[in-house]
Amino acid sequence: MKMPDYLMVSEGTAPAPMAYPIGETGFSFKESERPNLALTLWIDADAIPPAARAVLQSKGRFEALTGLIRVLTEVDGFGRFRAGWVLGRTTGGLVSIVVRDANHCSAKGLRDDAAFSVRQAERYCATSAAVLVQQSDANGGRGAREALESAFMASYVQPDRLYRSELHSECPVWFACLSSGVH
Question: How far is CA 139 from each of CA 51, 103, 106, 108, 111, rounded to the nearest angstrom?
Answer without folding.
Answer: 20, 9, 16, 21, 22
